[in-house]
Amino acid sequence: xxxxxxxxxxxxxxxxxxxxxxxxxxxxxxxxxxxxxxxxxxxxxxxxxxxxxxxxxxxxxxxxxxxxxxxxxxxxxxxxxxxxxxxxxxxxxxxxxxxxxxxxxxxxxxxxxxxxxxxxxxxxxxxxxxxxxxxxxxxxxxxxxxxxxxxxxxxxxxxxxxxxxxxxxxxxxxxxxxxxxxxxxxxxxxxxxxxxxxxxxxxxxxxxxxxxxxxxxxxxxxxxxxxxxxxxxxxxxxxxxxxxxxxxxxxxxxxxxxxxxxxxxxxxxxxxxxxxxxxxxxxxxxxxxxxxxxxxxxxxxxxxxxxxxxxxxxxxxxxxxxxxxxxxxxxxxxxxxxxxxxxxxxxxxxxxxxxxxxxxxxxxxxxxxxxxxxxxxxxxxxxxxxxxxxxxxxxxxxxxxxxxxxxxxxxxxxxxxxxxxxxxxxxxxxxxxxxx
Length: 436
Prior knowledge:
Number of strands: 13
Mean pLDDT: 89
Order of helices and strands: EEEHEHEHEHEHEHEHHEHEHHEHHEHH
Strand order of the largest sheet: 4-5-13-10-11-12
Radius of gyration: 22 Å
Number of helices: 15
């Protein structure tokens, strides 16, 4: 089956040479309409290919490509024209923290935390949605749809607000109310699907094909990887400002559909191709035990072209994917870099939330904290060695899921005290007050 977006692939700039299938090596020209490998079907998202000689020329012309703010400072490595209109909201340029206390605790030489919770709608998904808005508008398409467990939906709604676009969001009916409220505030049309994420995804696919909408969904639209890859550019650039050996040994990412992990890999491959880095870090993907499709396949050496959907459950809703839609890119990221997939429990994820917050001040939702839980497990199992330098992606803010935040600290009720409005009352309610 060939997924199509009318006109979208006929407006690409000359430095985009086409699309390549990571599985069979098939190549499709940039003037075509293929979004998925024809022999393998829609589960195999294509990889956007570039003329890196043209990219290098553009980088030199634009003072290294770093004369703009946010993710658009890397536009020479994006599939957009130089004069393409951009969304209103500032995307990218999120902080990278050097977490020395956590590094010492884990026996690492250095640990950096990239806080994507600081994006406009609170997650890394803003990067992909911002690019989706640019691509759709460049193609003359005014209706954009996506399937999501919440974060991609919020990102699309936020990026499209004030742009004169119709935004249609398919989410499972079980999605957190706070995430639905965010969509409604931005003015998006919300379709609550009586089913799980995979069923919402399939319905979005069908609707986009039938009505001719632009499909922003992960695993269908190859440009979403291109938006998410910009986080890798920022990590390398930000580390280089304080460390001459600017390529970490490992990068750790929470994995649901696999698009973020695939995007980080693509960004690093770009940097290798244009000579900005000299070697590839090992990439680690962290999956929740209740949604561990890729971990299972990696551990058992299964063929993900044949592996069927699995049931899912768990506290980290953004990691729930019974059939990861960017599974080929995610698996390639781990296998070709000699990394690993790591499985963590819900208890591990919840425990990681306050540890990450207290260790470096990053307030992470469960899916984001899963990366730190995975780092802990990888150190315990020897996948990440003592003295290594590690970068970790915190992909979304804890404000996305306040109920899980409360659950994460529910065993710490002894740290909450009720006091009368007097100093004596405070000392009686909290005897340790004078020691604080």
